[in-house]
Specification:
The protein is mainly alpha-helical. It is built from 18 helices and five strands. The protein starts with 5 loop residues before the first helix and ends with a helix. The N terminus is likely disordered. Bound molecules: zinc ion (ZN). Zinc ion (ZN) binds next to α13 and α14.
């Protein structure tokens, strides 16, 4: 054991033990640690590979091969963690990769995408701009930077990035449609005023009086606290973008039909008026903004892996109560046997249904989530969302949390409205 001091060995053993790994035969040269690391890496045992490469890197800090291997192992392990929904730990490993190989653009791009996923837009923009300095012309970096600018509501800068990507690769997946969307929004919102609070940035048409703007802020700040608490203390980082429109501007920018009250597509978008031009009453505005804010929190926990009925049911449950008329309509639905299955309510395609059908889908989702919330409590609901956030399939996440199937849940809801 001439190559290692007792201290170094015990440090290595501590690392291996912390990772829950078998203690390896102690190698003597950096190249042996490196080969052991390569073997572990090829078998997808990344924490073990990291431990070997770190050791090799300690012994041979000038080897670019070892450094690149260690960087790759950090990145691969981070990728595994991200796939399981653990973005915080994934970010720590990618930071490690940048530490050992700071001229490599790839971990900066990876880190930018994780910061985007956890809604830390400033951090995402910074890392992606660095990636492009290191590797000008990298299409992934330019596309992601476009997304980060877009989410930060800098539509012009977003389009500049996407323009560049589309010029080189016109058929880039989904990008032309996104570019069109940003272009449409920019043409409606170009002269909007902007205002910000601690958590929110608001864009709104010039016609909006200051008193109404102040109302919107107080509704949103209230929702930030109330919904954050009700959902177990979840407070997404700023900025949360809110775009307010007159009714016809809302239709033009979102291309949504008149019966859609508001939407969350990464930004909260809501009209402030009806089609006659009258300002919406305050309680209606509060209901709509609170509903959309629930989507912000749900997305922050579970990303896009949320079935439609859960997302909408939760937003309805936490923004309004079922009224007598709603309960009667639900009773009729179950009596006629015209209720949806949860499977039918999974997909966002349901939004394309005609208004009356869509209204029933909302009601049923509301009733379903309200039953889960009242009967099993908030902690279970948060556990369900967290399971979805870790990438589990809908029903598996549900069964793991509630110990029952969707079929049983459907039956329980039906029994309530009989
Ligand atoms: Zn909604």
């Amino acid at each position: 054991m001439n190559a290692l001091t007792t201290h170094a060995i015990s440090r290595l053993l501590v690392v291996m033990a912390a990772l829950g790994l078998a203690i390896p035969v102690v190698a003597q040269h950096p190249s042996e640690y490196n080969s052991a690391g390569v073997q572990a890496y090829q078998a997808n045992r990344y924490p073990e590979a990291i431990a070997y490469f770190e050791r090799a890197n300690d012994l041979a800090p000038d080897s670019p091969v070892v450094r690149r291997n260690l960087c790759n192992a950090y990145q691969s392990h981070a990728n595994e963690l991200a796939l399981s929904g653990d973005f915080r730990s994934a970010i720590r490993y990618v930071e490690g990769a940048i530490g050992v190989d700071p001229q490599n653009a790839s971990p900066f791009i990876q880190l930018g995408s994780y910061y985007l996923r956890i809604d830390d837009l400033n951090a995402a923009i910074q890392r992606l701009e660095t990636a492009i300095q290191l590797k000008p012309g990298d299409l992934d970096a330019h596309e992601l930077l476009g997304h980060a600018y877009y989410r930060d509501n800098d539509l012009f800068s977003a389009r500049a990035q996407w323009d560049y990507v589309l010029e080189i690769e016109p058929k880039r997946k989904n990008l032309a449609a996104l570019y069109e969307k940003a272009f449409r929004e920019e043409s409606v919102e170009y002269d909007f005023n902007r205002w910000k609070s601690r958590h929110f940035r608001i864009s709104y048409p010039q016609e909006v009086p200051n008193s109404l703007r102040a109302n919107v802020f107080s509704i949103l700040d209230r929702a930030y606290i109330d919904i954050g608490r009700q959902m177990g203390g979840v407070f997404p980082p700023p900025p949360i973008h809110v775009i307010l429109y007159l009714a016809d501007q809302f239709s033009e920018a979102t291309q949504l039909e008149g019966h859609i009250g508001a939407v969350y597509d990464g930004k909260i978008r809501s009209p402030l008026t009806d089609f006659e031009g009258a300002w919406l009453p305050e309680d209606e505005l509060r209901r709509r903004l609170t509903h959309e804010y629930v989507h912000v929190v749900a997305r922050h926990i579970a990303g896009d892996n949320v079935p439609w009925w859960l997302n909408e049911g939760l937003a309805e449950t936490l923004s309004r109560s079922l009224r007598d008329g709603d309960v009667n309509r639900l009773r009729e639905m179950y009596a006629e046997g015209s209720a949806f299955t949860l499977y039918e309510l999974e997909d966002n395609q349901i939004n394309k249904q005609p208004p009356t059908t869509l209204r029933l889908a909302y009601l049923q989702s509301h009733a379903t989530v309200e039953l889960l919330w009242n009967r099993f409590g908030r902690a279970k609901m948060m556990a369900f969302l967290n399971a979805l956030g870790s990438g589990m399939r809908y029903e598996e996440a549900f069964q793991t949390t509630y110990r029952r199937t969707f079929a049983i849940l459907e039956r329980d809801v039906a029994a309530m409205y009989r």
